[in-house]
Every structure is written in structure tokens, then in C-alpha cells.
Amino acid sequence: MRILLVEDDELIGDGIQVGLTEFGFTIDWFNDGLQGQNAIYSAPYDAVILDLSLPHIDGLDILKHWRQNKIDTPVLILTARDAIKERVSGLQFGADDYLCKPFALEEVAARLQALVRRRHGQLSSIIQYKDIALDTANYVVTKSSEPVVLTSRELKLLELFLLSQNRVLSKALIQEKLYSWSDDVSSNTVEVHIHNLRHKLGKDLIRTIYGMGYALGDEK
């Protein structure tokens, strides 16, 4: 999952970026509110972590701007403002969830996973396709009930395909979902990861649609 983080506190922002990366997320962090507001248009983010007390522009104004411009990306507000009135305002302006500082990274990760699952109509933390199951709470993969070891990138790619069933994913979109702007991506990286998934989970798991990209499963 690729997450947009808008947080001006260097210590908190760095902790979230490092911690959530270890949970398997791809994080783009902006400590400037206006840059973060505009960044939403630059990449296919799965969710946003938004602080409210930002210099130059308030987080609620960023949220209102996004919703007025039909940006429906799930937003988790993460702020020190813990008054009930503040929470109600955040939700009324279009936030999908609200969490007060201090926080536990495990809870932030779980809330982000839940927001993204709901956006894709997936209520359970376990996503299945035929005999393959991915437990997104613990990032455990099984095939025919037997555990399969995947790398972090392979897990991200599998999750992307499982959440995008019946969709064709272009190579460019896959790269944008798996990598942040600071990552160094070689031209054949996506093909290598797909080859590895086919090897570990079955050659028919992902099909190539020439000139378009890739899709989950056999052609119907």
C-alpha cells in the first residue's frame, strides 16, 4: 500500500515513515502542508495520514480542499487535537478515521489496512483467491493451507493483485503502488517480482495482457 503522510513534526514523521515501512507500507512524507495537499494528485495513493496542526495551512482545510475536488482517497487524521468537537469536525469534513497522539504504530497500521480493505469492498483481513490466502493482519501467505515465504515487495504485489481482482494493472501503476519517489527502480523490476510470484504460487496466478499490463488469474 502506498501512503501519503502529511506531518510537520520531524521526529514523529520520521518515526511513522520508518515504522510503517517495516510494516510493509510505501510512504511518501511531506512536512509542508501545501506540498502534501498537492501531492495527492501525483500518485495513486491508497490512503493518507494527515496531521491537523500544520504551518501555513490547517489540515482540515487540506481535507476540505480534497473532498471539494472529489478526491475520495481514505484519510486517517493523526493529531494532538483530542477534543470531541475536533474529532466531530474532522469526520464531518470527510475524514474516514481519527486517531489522537500519542499513538501506537501497530494501531496506525491496522487502521490503514482496514480503510484500504473497506475501499475495495473487503471486510475480512484474510483475502482469498482460489487456494491462495493472504492474511493482511499478519502478512502470512498460504497456498492450499501451506505457508509460502514471500519477500516484502512480493507481499505488496500479491496484495495489490488480490485487492484488484477483475482489473488490468499496467506496469506503470504497479510501480507507482510499490515504490515511493525516493526508490531506485530498474526497468525490469516489476517483471522480476511477477516471475517470482508465479514461481512460488503458480504460473497461472498472474496473466500477461500484452500492450496493457497484468491481471489476476486465468482468462475467462
TrEMBL record:
Residues carrying 4-aspartylphosphate: D51
Main location: cytoplasm
Keyword Ribosomal protein: no
Ranges for domain OmpR/PhoB-type: 124-218
GO cellular component: cytosol; protein-DNA complex
Record-annotated DNA-binding residue ranges: 124-218
Listed GO MF terms: phosphorelay response regulator activity; transcription cis-regulatory region binding
Localization per Swiss-Prot or TrEMBL: Cytoplasm
GO biological process, one term: regulation of DNA-templated transcription
InterPro entries according to UniProt: CheY-like_superfamily, OmpR/PhoB-type_DNA-bd, Sig_transdc_resp-reg_receiver, WalR-like, WH-like_DNA-bd_sf
Domain Response regulatory stretches: 2-116
Keyword terms of this UniProt record: Cytoplasm, DNA-binding, Phosphoprotein, Transcription, Transcription regulation, Two-component regulatory system
Protein name stated in the entry: Response regulator
Organism this protein belongs to: Limnobaculum parvum
